[in-house]
Structure formats: C-alpha cells, structure tokens
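Following the same procedure, sequence and fold were stored together, as reproduced here.

>
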Amino acid sequence: MKLETLRVEDPRLLDQVYAFRYRIYVEQEAMTRDADHDRQRLTDDLDRYSVCYAVLRNGDVAASLRATYLADVPQPQELIDKFKMAQALETFRLDEIATTSRFIIDRTLNNGKLVYQLVKLAYTDARRRGVRLNYGDCSPHLLSFYEHLGYRRYCDGYNDSSFGYKVPILMLLGDQRHLEEVRSPVIRLATQYPDDDVARTWFERCFPLYTRVDSAEFLEEGAFLELLAARISDEPGHRLLLLRGLDQSEQEQFLSRATFLDVLPGALLVRRGDRDNTLYVMLSGTAEVRAGAPGLPPVRVLGAGDTFGEIGFVAAVPRTADVVALTPAQVLVLSSHFIERLIWDEPCLGAKVLLNLARELATRLAIST
C-alpha cells in the first residue's frame, strides 16, 4: 500500500479532495446538505484563497486539511467575526493569523502517524510564514483530539447551520510550554523556533478562564474524577447512573478520555439526523429533547445525572432527536470511539457500562409507555 502526505497543488488532485469531502461529510456523516450535489463536491469560497493538504492512499484521498491565511483573504471580516478575533487584532498583525478547517479523516485510514504528518506539514508552512495564532472549531466529541494537537478553547460554542454545534478553538503556534504539557505532535517542530511568550501572556490575560485544560487525558491520575465530583457536589458513582457499580479505578479508566463542556441556553448539543454517536451526561442545568415538529412539547427534559445520545451509541443509527440546552449547563462528553475500544479491551468494565445504559433505556421506555 502506497501512502503519502503532501501539499495539494495539482487542480485534478484538488478536485479529488472536494469529492472526498463530499463523500465523508455529506454521504457518510450526513453533517451538511450545503454542497454541489450534482457534481458531488463540497467546496466554498475560502478554497480560492487557502492551502490544501492531503494524505493519499494508493493515489486516493484518505484525509485532508485546509489552512487559510487571513492576509490572503481579500475580505476577512467574516472570519474575524466568526472566530471573535477582535482582541487578537489589537496585538497581532493580520499576516500572523490563520485558520484551519476541513480536517477530515477516512475512518478506514487507521494510521495516526500519517494524520500527524499532515498536521506537521501544515504547521511547518504556517511557522515559515510567521503565523502565531491559528483559529478553528470542532464538534464536542473531537475536543480531546484537538487539545492534544495543541488547541485550546477560548469562548462559548455556537450552532452552525450546516455542521451542528461547534466549539471555537485556538492554537498558539509558539507556546512551547503548553504544547509540551499536552504532548502535542508538533512540539519538536515548535522548539526550532523562538518560544512565543508574548502570545502566551496575551492569551492568559484575555482568556483567563481557559488557561487550564480540563480534559481527563491531560490531568494527573484521579484529578478528573475530583473535578467531576466537585461539579456535581457528590460522589460520581452515586449521582451518575452511567458510573454505578464501577469502583474508583474503573471510573477513572472509563473517564480517561472524557472532557467537560460548558454551554449557553440554545446550544444544539445533538442534532436529529446526524450520524454522531457520542455519549453525553448532564452535570448541571437543563436541556430539552425535541423529536416532533417545531412548537410541539418536548419529549423529555434532561437534568443533572441524565445521559443522552445513548440510542445513537448503542444502536449505531442516526440521531433520533434534537437536544437543546434550556439553561446554562455543564455536560460530560464521552468519545464513542474510545468507549468502543474500551469495551473490546476491558470486557468486564464494558459489560458494567452497557448494563447501566440498558437500565437507563429500560427505565425511560417504562416511563414513556
């Protein structure tokens, strides 16, 4: 099998990238309908000003990434508004800012090293151009992945009309201390350039609530469980049905790739029809489950301790309802890919988790009937 990572410059290969995006985002993931369905291509105006990268498997696109340098965009105000860059532009020049998007990976690729090579290639190009800040956004279940790359959250999420709920993220390309802390794959490349203490100080001053990464894999052993207990003001195994019957070491193992998400009222946490099978647990606040036509009463109101998204996880079917936050809320996000791997590697622990899910589903069914 021939595998290669490259910067896409051939127009014919670029067209293959657009076709790849369509296949993954539109046909497989059903994430958006905003595409050229006649030609089966997914592209937009930013492609005219952006640099595209790809992983090729036997000549076919298996992963892609797009970098957009704000200085190359004739009218960048839309990007400035979308990512709330006003504070950044008080300190940094336009040519020191970029965004990344369309980071898409074929599930069958199964080659993490190649994916990281893709990131490293884009990172090197950006550093050579003098970029210091790199903005983007991601779905909640991908937060830990992006945080491992070196991105940080810096503001509240938003509902994207095409791609559902998104969390804005920001990477300080020269913050060597942070890249080292999250074990970023680009840390060795970063040390070839001066440490950007100015950018780090700016971030800490502008976004003090986001200086610490609260995802489990970046914390010391037991720290995430302590944070979880503090957020629910009780023993997690007692308050959260999903953790019942698990001892402390099993809870830590199960939550080792989990993260917290703070959302505002109106956040569309789950969107009907999406093929995302992430699990969520309400820690505080309330949310509505809406499955009927607009204006009809909600199917269910979720409160602290309630799990949602489990039907998509267990049955591997598209989302059957919308879940919308009614109040400011804190949510526990659990990656389905990690849980599936954990169930396979640790069948005893997996059986307890699945039993808890089955009990919650059975209780809900009994109430509804």
